Amino acid sequence: MSYQKVIIVGNLGRDPELRYTPDGTPVASFSVATNRRWTNSDGSPGEETCWFRVSVWRRQAEVTAQYLSKGRQVMIEGRLTPDKETGGPRTWTGQDGVTRASYDMTADRIIFLSGRGEPTGGGPDEDEGSYGDENGVIPF
Length: 140
Description:
single chain, mainly beta, CATH 2.40.50.140, five-stranded mixed barrel, globular, disordered C terminus
């Protein structure tokens, strides 16, 4: 038996896009950027951004599309989905000629981290009603 679980915390790079499979199953897709910052030995700042392309299915896809928007901070638990051609992350060459990569991830659980008063573009903490528990956890 083998098992894989990935946990990321980051901000949505774009609004979720909700689609339906031919049999009517909802699926939402969006990107999440995670950032790591540090100070180099010479005192200069270092920064690294890693992008994840996230897919989420069924009822969780509908809730994600309804409540999340670009810039919203989330924690996602799920599994990495390797590129079918390379077995690793999806790679491409940017307009500047630099090779870039993003990781495909299928979400099992999404936790809303942005709270009331933060720019969220709507969501479970606002007046239209709430969804999830006091920590923004969506029960699925």
